[in-house]
Design goal:
This is NIPSNAP protein. Pfam families: NIPSNAP. InterPro entries: Dimeric_a/b-barrel, NIPSNAP. This protein has helices at about 15-30, 60-65, 80-85, and strands at about 1-10, 35-40, 50-55, 85-90, 95. By secondary structure, it is of the alpha+beta class. It is globular, with a radius of gyration of 14 Å.
Length: about 100
């Protein structure tokens, strides 16, 4: 498995709104391309942070999925509504160590 961690720092007090919008509109589109392995909202440290962990079967699956990543068309109403709720986004891609592959 290959994992991509997507962390969004929302505007103050907007993490719940962002997560609700993602659940209602974003997930049904994105899960066509990747598997949701986890989702968290911060309780300490950097507050108003939502982290998603997306799983891909292997590097080939990620490579074929990422040309359309994000898989939501720019003109889709989800895009401007979600972008208004966050201010910082981080997108590292992680692979397990060779002993875990």
């Amino acid at each position: 498995m290959i994992y991509e961690q997507r962390t969004y720092r929302t505007h103050p007090g907007k993490a719940s709104d962002f997560l609700q919008l993602y659940e209602e509109e974003g997930l049904k589109i994105i899960t066509r391309h990747a598997m949701l392995a986890g989702c968290w909202i911060s309780e300490s440290g950097a507050l108003d942070t939502v982290t998603f962990l997306w799983a891909f079967k292997d590097h080939g699956h990620r490579r074929t999925s990422t040309p359309s990543w994000p898989p939501i068309p720019t003109g889709h109403p989800f895009c401007p509504r979600s972008c208004r709720l966050w201010c910082i986004r981080k997108l590292p891609c992680c692979s397990p160590p060779p002993s875990r592959r």
